[in-house]
Amino acid sequence: xxxxxxxxxxxxxxxxxxxxxxxxxxxxxxxxxxxxxxxxxxxxxxxxxxxxxxxxxxxxxxxxxxxxxxxxxxxxxxxxxxxxxxxxxxxxxxxxxxxxxxxxxxxxxxxxxxxxxxxxxxxxxxxxxxxxxxxxxx
Length: 138
What we know:
Strand 7 (81-87) and strand 8 (92-107) form a beta hairpin. The chain has no helices and ten strands. By secondary structure, it is mostly beta strands. It has a ten-stranded antiparallel beta barrel with strand order 1-2-3-4-5-6-7-8-9-10.
């Protein structure tokens, strides 16, 4: 395992407008059995303190897995739909992720993962989300 700076940037659009979020985390990176893994602890800034996030990817898909105070599993495969649950300390929310695009790029100093997807949860408005994750191994 090696140290990594993991930057997560997201833009969410729904009927209420546009919101943006960016977090920068220190974590680890490793490769095993044809997959890459990046792991980091969520902070107070993300609103999910007490949670560990693991990113797992290969050439065509990305998985986002959270364990701890908040639990969630999302799969991003271009054209795919994934149903799961988002478990908070207070309630469980059903989620459905419909992935439009997945871009995975190896860089000279790390990785760049980009996902565009629609996220539907409970009876709430549909969110159109673009997430970019940069794993910097310098």
